[in-house]
């Protein structure tokens, strides 16, 4: 059974070493368990945690048999024995998975049934989002073809029946409600034209209320 050596970054080694210690295992045993459980093929599409960076490399002085000394380069390495040859990237990926599975903020294994339930919920949410988008499109104001010159135009854009009884707080509150819906970059009904008219309508009404 060959031994594969994979140079790695210090942060990855520290993480997998901590996970192994918490489970009462050695680092090679934990990585080998992960490879047995998950399989190298399942790691193919995961990103490689990366080879050592210059900051991960250290140096130490060793004493030779002849009494002399030599400064040697020390690089964090993961070592694991496996039935089939593996590249260094796969070993690093396995170490990352082994270090994160089961952690409070790491990866978790789920059953096929749980995965199906998650996918079903996602499909339901997508359908609901499509329904909400269609409803908003139906209820949304149609952009005016001319600049806002009258109060009724501004109240129409902001969704008020008339300008009587409006105050600054009410106008600003309505604008803050509608702006996220029509924001051209992040809105559910992103529309630069509608967003521009919302701004125009708010500014017109605020000026109208002050006059």
Précis, in short:
The chain is mainly α and 211 residues long. It contains seven helices and four strands.
Q: What do you see in this structure?
A:
- By secondary structure, the protein is mainly α.
- Helices cover 51% and strands 10% of the residues.
- Strands 1-4 form a two-stranded antiparallel sheet.
- A hairpin with a 5-residue loop joins strand 2 (58-63) and strand 3.
- Helix 6 packs antiparallel against helix 7 (192-210).
- InterPro entries: J_dom_sf (IPR036869).
- It comes from Azospirillum argentinense.
- This is J domain-containing protein.
What portion of the residues fall into strands of 2 or more residues? 5-15%
- Through-space gap between termini: 87 Å
Q: Ranges with pLDDT <50 over ≥5 residues?
A: none
Q: Helix share of residues? A: 40-55%
Structural class: mainly alpha
